[in-house]
Amino acid sequence: MQKLLQVVCVVLVAAVVMFGGRWYMYVARGESPYDEVGIALNGYAPAPMRAWGCHTMQARFPGQLPPYGCSGADGRRWI
Question: How would you label 17-30 residue by residue, b for 16+ Cβ within 10 Å and e otherwise?
């Protein structure tokens, strides 16, 4: 039972590192704010992380339309 718990914990930590790292690369170093995988990961992120990500991308891509999940009600303004 302890071995199973250890394996489950390792798998969970690996998933968090893999998906969290991919999300961070999209937000902080992505070439475009319209990467489909990045948009999906940003949509699943908790609200504070999503808000930070959207503000970071807004600073990196001024003048561009926001991607899905970072747009306001009209779809043209960043949140």
Answer: eeeeeebbebbeeb
User: Which residue ranges make up each domain of the chain?
Assistant: 2-60
For residues 42 and 54, the answer to whether their CB atoms sit within 8 Å is yes
Contact by Cβ (8 Å): 34, 70: no
> pLDDT digit string (tens) for 6-42?
999 999 999 999 999 999 999 999 999 999 999 999 9
Between the CA of residue 71 and those of 4, 7, 17, what are the distances in Å? 42, 39, 27
Over residues 38-67, the pLDDT tens digits come to: 999 999 999 999 999 999 999 999 989 999
Which tokens is 24 given?
């961070």
Cβ neighbours around 52 below 10 Å, total: 13
- Measured CA to CA, the distance from residue 66 to residue 11 in angstroms comes to 33
